[in-house]
Amino acid sequence: MQYNDLSTNEDFMFIGSLLLRLVKINRVNNHDISDIAELSSSQCLDIKAGRINRSRGCCVGLISSMTNHSCVPNIRRCFSEDMKYIFYALEPIASGTQLFDAYGDFFYVSPLMHRREKRKNFVCQCIACEEDWPPVLLSPWIDEAIYFTELSFTIKISPLIDTIFCRKYLIDKQLLQTVVDQINEIVDVLPQPSTTRCLLLQALEAIYEKYYGLAVPFENFCSF
């Protein structure tokens, strides 16, 4: 049957509005599935050896799609080799705290204007955007109020960060636990934005990517 004006057809409008809703949901809730291909044949982590993100497809997860966005997320996700979602905490999370993931760049690797240009579907109102936190891993920055505390922790974790990002090191649970212990020690001492905290968060994500073999691409990954 032909319709001169499809807007008067209730079935057509219902199906059309449903499809439009699904398209909009998919744009902000689907996740890319990719694996990390090392250019080096070594089983060790060597950031400088180079990595390639190979896309496997995308998905809309029943649980992952329920997490809201923040440029200062408290959880991240990666995929196991059998394509199972793995969620892990970036820092200690108190009971009753809302879980936030990052739909794109973290604040510490991308200026506010750049993040807003890339997100056309919503306006982020996280604390990093509201207070315009500096991208601390792109340009040197230390809060003068905690300068000496920040400096002392930076010196303390430098050997660990150097080991992870500049040298080959076997990824194991001992290395993961070392990074987690450092994060637990620093989280109550250095408030964000903190260069040292962000370095540890980036190191934690690098370890999970390598440990499980599959990961969501992390843009603007800094190497040191």
Automatic annotation (TrEMBL):
Gene3D superfamilies given for it? SET domain
Pfam families per UniProt: SET
**The SET domain covers which part of the protein?**
55-104
Superkingdom per UniProt: Eukaryota
InterPro entries reported in the protein's UniProt record: SET-MYND_domain_protein (IPR052097), SET_dom (IPR001214), SET_dom_sf (IPR046341)
Molecular functions (GO terms): N-methyltransferase activity; protein methyltransferase activity; S-adenosylmethionine-dependent methyltransferase activity
The protein's UniProt keywords, in alphabetical order, are: Methyltransferase, S-adenosyl-L-methionine, Transferase
List where the protein spans the membrane.
none
Q: Name one GO biological process term.
A: methylation
The entry's protein name is SET domain-containing protein
Q: Which organism is it from?
A: Trichogramma kaykai
